[in-house]
Amino acid sequence: MQRHILAVNAGSSSIKFQAFAATSGEVERRVAGQLDGIGSNPRLVIKDGAGKILADRNFTTAEAPSVEEGEAITGDWLVSDAGTKAIGGELDAIGHRVVHGGVDFAGPALIDDTALARITALTSLAPLHQPKNLAPIHAWRKRRPDLPQIACFDTAFHRGHGELADRFAIPDALYREGVRRYGFHGISYEYIAGQLKIVAPDLAQGRIVVAHLGNGCSLCALKDGRSVDSTMSFTALDGIPMGTRPGAIDPGVILYLMREKGMDAKALERFLYHECGLKGLSGISNDVRVLEASPDPMARLALDHFVYRLGKEMAALVSVLGGIDALVFTAGIGENGADLRARITAKAAWLGIAIDDQKNRAPSGDISVEGAKVRTLVIPTDEERLIARQTLETLWPSQPK
């Protein structure tokens, strides 16, 4: 029996979605769409599985001022005659990316009232993302209350970490309450771990560092296809600098901002999630493309700092792994930022990493120089496809993968 699965990935200013038909052995993409620029210059683009444009429309800021209103636009199209025809039938289930699963969720979960309450309670641990992930869930519960929905957690892939990797040096009682290192971008990392079995089976069980570089950035250490450690921890603020988040920061800086600048929790949250990272350091933009094109020395400093911290954190993960067999780049910057890839790999040359400049300009694949001690690959991530697979396997486990 064929099932039709919608995978929803809602961010702070965009909603990405894909609809799949579950056929023998795999999920087949029927529709892929994105409403981006929410709150500024909203634009909805929807394509069929072959890449043909089905819809391309700009909206006013008033029509899509937030993800909640944006979801109404995407959801209404998906249940319209045009949407149902493009998908190949009515939806049978929806899978959602949910950033934080806390201690409770170590795998995909059916969303009922109890699960929804537990997910909502984690909002303070991911204030930038969790409300946006919840918005489509609430909307679809109203639109189609009969439709099963599955939460797929960014933290779940990292739940197998050892206790040494997960703990902070704080009293045990706090760890028992859930104050621990979780790690994020797990849906992306799990997809990459699966893709390695296909594109580089000789490396799939090896020691891999994956660099998920987008507006949010992190590194993950994989061994035997499993997450061993990650640069993000209790929240999605930790680790390497990001578009608007600082990455690792001395907690004393937070105390200083509270005492000397009078910042309360709300102001600190705004500062750490929206005013730091590449945007804060450069004073120009969180967009790498803008910074690379800028002659401003602060733009150069921001990128230099980004590369420096990446090299430092990569070395730490290589230490955890006891060596490295491959480096994998993925996500928006990782897949498209050839110049930054070149700078990052040059910083890691001491590990035996070396890339071919011509190969580095290709969209994806192995970009290593011939005979490199450590392989370097660019593998596009597809979080929506993994969400669809997890949704299918959770609801209909007998369905062929």
Quick take:
With 401 residues, the chain is α/β, with parallel strands linked by helices. The protein has 16 helices and 14 strands.
The number of domains is 2
Give the strand order, joined by hyphens, for the main sheet.
5-4-3-2-1-6-8-7
Radius of gyration: 21 Å
Q: Strand percentage, roughly?
A: 15-25%
Helical run tally: 16
Q: Please bin the fraction of helical residues.
A: 25-40%
CATH architecture of the largest domain: 2-Layer Sandwich
Label the overall shape.
globular
Task: Say what the CATH topology of the largest domain is.
Answer: Nucleotidyltransferase, domain 5
CATH superfamily membership of the largest domain, which one? ATPase, nucleotide binding domain
Structural class: alpha/beta
The overall pLDDT average reads 94
CATH class of the largest domain: Alpha Beta
Low-pLDDT segments: none
Q: Element order, helices and strands? A: EEEEEHHEEHHEHHHEEEHHHHHEHHHEEH
Count of DSSP E strands? Answer: 14
Major sheet characteristics: 8 strands, mixed
Query: First CA to last CA: what distance?
Result: 13 Å
Describe, in plain words, how this protein is organized in 3D.
The chain is α/β, with parallel strands linked by helices and 401 residues long. The chain folds into two domains: 151 residues, 2-Layer Sandwich (Nucleotidyltransferase, domain 5); 179 residues, ATPase, nucleotide binding domain (Nucleotidyltransferase, domain 5), CATH 3.30.420. Helix content is 39%, strand content 21%. It has 16 helices and 14 strands. Helix 1 crosses helix 4, helix 7 packs across helix 16 and helix 12 crosses helix 14. It is globular, with a radius of gyration of 21 Å.
